[in-house]
């Protein structure tokens, strides 16, 4: 079916230097639902309108819908694997689910482009939504995460990228779509920076300066890289990440906004389970000793074509 795959939204768009993440709930009532549905038909045009002015600005927008919102806004048929965010981990080390019906992932090489598009998209939605979280992120030096390690190295590329992220014949009505998980993390940088570089490398599972992966003899089974590596039938299961650092250094806030796209939520959930519960249970991700997840949401990203068509849909 791959040849006929509908045009996806900009899920696999190139790495950019700026981002705005917006998570919103949809207001109650038929009027709000009508506004959001109509807006689905305007997203692509608004993105073109803003992006055209800076042709090499790489502006893109991906929008996704949460499980409850899908039913209210669009009804049946629904994406086969869409469900609310599943929480993992014990008290004190938990991946919490937080409110969210709509996700906007706005990327560009300039923050003014992201800002303008976010303004246009939110203005068009008006009172039909209530923004519950908004984060502006930035690319940090040579692709380094807030904790100082290069982030994104093991992302899939080429054919593997689309195979890992885009729904195909397993759910034909939603082909070209994707699932996306977001989590906002806050880091205890004082505690993290108190570790030696060698200890930090054992937490991540890679060398800090060179980004080279630790070999099996030196990589702990509770390192981030070990616990997020999944295999199925001898093949590695990949997701696409575009995490961005954010924060307010003067106020002591240092964060990572995690975003992962996958063809199925189960890959994302297995990684979360390994990180927060542990593999085996108790052998959890040591990055969580220095990082707290404060939000969590799972969304379905319709293909670009379906997004336009949703404007006409009635539940
Ligand atoms: C505090 C938040 C996080 C930070 C700072 C972080 C950072 C990193 C870094 C530095 C790497 C190594 C380089 C690379 O391959 O990208 C990495 C790898 C990876 N992370 Fe994360 N990550 C975070 C959360 C997550 C979450 C929540 C997931 C999945 C649900 C995840 C999935 C992965 C995967 C799949 C890899 C590649 C593993 C491999 O194939 O070696 N990460 N992350």
Written overview of the protein:
- The protein has 315 residues and is an alpha+beta fold.
- It has one domain.
- It is built from ten helices and twelve strands.
- The protein binds protoporphyrin IX containing FE.
- The site of protoporphyrin IX containing FE has 27 residues, from β5, α8, β10 and α9.
Note poorly predicted spans.
none
Biggest β-sheet, characterized? Answer: 6 strands, antiparallel
Structural class by sheet pairing and helices: alpha+beta
Number of strands: 12
Radius of gyration: 19 Å
What is the averaged pLDDT score?
97
Count of DSSP-assigned helices: 10
Q: What is the strand content?
A: 15-25%
Series of H and E elements: EHHEHEHEHEHHHEEEEEHEEH
Q: Ligands bound here?
A: protoporphyrin IX containing FE
Distance between the termini: 28 Å
The level of helicity is 25-40%
> Any idea how many domains?
1
Form type: globular
């Amino acid at each position: 079916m791959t040849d006929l795959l509908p045009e996806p939204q900009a899920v696999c768009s190139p790495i950019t230097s700026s981002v705005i993440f917006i998570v919103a709930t949809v207001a109650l009532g038929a009027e709000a639902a009508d506004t959001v549905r109509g807006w689905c038909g305007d997203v692509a045009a608004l993105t073109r309108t803003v992006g055209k002015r800076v042709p090499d600005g790489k502006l893109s927008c991906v929008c996704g819908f949460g499980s409850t919102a899908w039913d209210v806004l669009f009804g049946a048929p629904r994406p086969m694997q869409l469900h609310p965010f599943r929480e993992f981990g014990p008290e004190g080390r938990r991946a919490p689910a937080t409110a969210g019906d709509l996700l906007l992932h706005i990327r560009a090489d300039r923050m003014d482009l992201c800002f303008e598009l976010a303004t246009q998209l939110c203005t068009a939605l008006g009172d039909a939504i209530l923004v519950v979280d908004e984060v502006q992120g930035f690319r940090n030096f040579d692709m380094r995460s807030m904790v100082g390690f290069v982030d994104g190295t093991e992302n899939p590329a080429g054919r593997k990228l689309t195979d890992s992220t885009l729904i195909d014949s397993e759910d034909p009505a939603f082909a070209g779509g994707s699932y996306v998980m977001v989590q906002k993390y806050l880091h205890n940088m004082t505690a993290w920076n108190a570790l030696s570089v060698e200890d930090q490398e054992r937490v991540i599972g890679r060398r800090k300066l060179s980004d080279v992966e630790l070999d099996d003899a030196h990589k702990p089974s509770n390192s981030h890289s070990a616990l997020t590596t999944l295999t199925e039938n001898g093949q590695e299961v990949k997701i696409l990440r575009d995490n961005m650092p954010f924060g307010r250094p003067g106020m002591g806030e240092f964060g990572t906004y995690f975003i992962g796209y996958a063809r199925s939520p189960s890959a994302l959930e297995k990684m979360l389970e390994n990180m927060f519960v542990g593999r085996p249970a108790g052998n959890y991700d040591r990055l969580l000793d220095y990082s707290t997840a404060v939000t969590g949401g799972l969304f379905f990203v319709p293909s670009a074509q379906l997004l336009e068509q949703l404007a006409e849909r009635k539940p």
